[in-house]
Amino acid sequence: MTSTAPAATPAGSPSGGAAATAVGLTKTYGRGPAAVHALRGVDVSFERGAFTAIMGPSGSGKSTLLHLLAGLDTATSGRVLLGETDLTALGDTALTLLRRQRLGFVFQQFNLLPVLTAEQNITLPLELGGRRGGRGAELDREWMADLVDVLGLRERLSHRPSELSGGQQQRVAIARALIGKPELVLADEPTGNLDSRSGAEVLEFLRRSVRELGRTVVMVTHDAVAASYADRVVLLADGRLAGEVTDPTPEAVASALDALRTSLPPAGGVGTTTAQMRAVAAAHVPSPAAGL
Ligand SMILES: Nc1ncnc2c1ncn2[C@@H]1O[C@H](COP(=O)(O)OP(=O)(O)OP(=O)(O)O)[C@@H](O)[C@H]1O
């Protein structure tokens, strides 16, 4: 699938124009011989107004990177910037507020409240913000109408989640993620629980939220077809940035992933140098990441 979006910001570029930036990001779980190096120094920028997918073999650090971008986990070293704000310098309360006011989340499990209607689920973040005096508690009715139309939910607003299909529920979850006009929407396998038709709808809506509603989306996925809806695919292998595919097609993504998998030993990275991965990725990826 070819995108008409502007060229992506190179990996590791400064945060000007970037919705989020990771700088020398490392995350180690555990200590000593049991330590797991989930991220080993990742430098990557996510361009504002673009749809970026993060892909890589199982255990390559995708979810860890998404969680650090969300301020849901703390880095071992390095920094995460949301715009100009350094998340790694914030305490728990500030991070909670930042997540509520500046981020939107879409999960594989739709996480809708069963007793609320679709409309109530969508506006819930504003209710929560309002109760605590947070910013964005006012419902922007025009924005709500835009979201409902783009997501095709107008006829479904009074329905409860149990009365909606999986795809419709995920569209409600996307509207809920977007209602507060977050700077960045983080999606973790948003189509993982959907059949391919509903998945395609959801991906199309995520793309439209970027193209038509000016949002910024970063999505973790295992699916090369899903990734092809993005403007750019960032590849991770063994906790490191291992290349990228711009204007991705499913074939280009699948071949870049195959190249990464065959370059990794079964144990997950021991003995594989970044240089080896770069060489393999460069051979298969149309636009390898600058700065690798
Ligand atoms: N809380 C944790 N404690 C210990 N190790 C962890 C923890 N979370 C993740 N890891 C390890 O960190 C590495 C990266 O995990 P992560 O979940 O980020 O990978 P992933 O690319 O998202 O994998 P998958 O595609 O299988 O979901 C893995 O080796 C994983 O086992």
UniProtKB/TrEMBL annotation:
SUPFAM superfamilies hit by this protein: P-loop containing nucleoside triphosphate hydrolases
Residue intervals of the ABC transporter domain: 20-263
Keywords: ATP-binding, Nucleotide-binding, Transport
Record InterPro entries: AAA+_ATPase, ABC_transporter-like_ATP-bd, ABC_transporter-like_CS, ABC_transpr_LolD-like, MacB-like_ATP-bd, P-loop_NTPase
Protein name: ABC transporter ATP-binding protein
Source organism of the structure: Quadrisphaera setariae
MF GO annotations: ATP binding; ATP hydrolysis activity; transmembrane transporter activity
Cited Pfam families: ABC_tran
GO cellular component term, pick one: membrane protein complex
Top-level taxon of the source organism: Bacteria
